[in-house]
Amino acid sequence: MCILMVVGCASPQGNRPFAKRKQAMNDAQERFQAVDVDDNGSLSRDEFSKSQAAKRAADPDKLFNSADTNGDGALTFSELTQAIRKLQSNR
Ligand SMILES: [Ca+2]
Ligand SMILES: [Ca+2]
Q1: Where in the sequence is the domain holding 55, given as residue range(s)?
Q2: Which residues have a beta carbon within 5 Å of ligand 1, which is an ion?
Q3: How far apart are CA 35 and CA 81, in angstroms?
């Protein structure tokens, strides 16, 4: 029993490579990255204006401003998803 426990503890469970990271990426993230043309992880006003969310919005500029919660002039993925969630819950 002791030996089994030692072997169990020694198995490198924490060392697994993140092989499935790509699969875990969801649609929203893929769309975000497709719009993020300069690939810096955030959407500038210009990039945002080309996104589906902006095209569907009645006032994309207003949407951008309300989504940019930290006011740095760019939307991160989490800022955008929160804004979209807010939009959807309003309907
Ligand atoms: Ca960008
Ligand atoms: Ca921001």
Answers
A1: 43-91
A2: 36, 38, 40, 47
A3: 14
Per-residue confidence (pLDDT) for residue 20, from 0 to 100: 52
Report yes or no on whether pTM surpasses 0.70. Answer: no
Q: Let me know if residue 15 belongs to a domain.
A: no
Which ligand has its closest atom nearest to the C-alpha of 78? 2
**How large is the average pLDDT for residues 39-45?**
97
Rounded Cα distance between 31 and 33, Å, is 5
Query: Based on the structure, what is the number of domains in the chain?
Result: 1
As a whole number of angstroms, the distance between CA 77 and CA 34 comes to 12
What are 79-91's pLDDT values in tens digits?
999 988 888 887 6
* Residue 66 CA to ligand 1 centre (angstroms): 18
How many CA atoms lie within 13 Å of 76's alpha carbon, on the beta-carbon side?
6
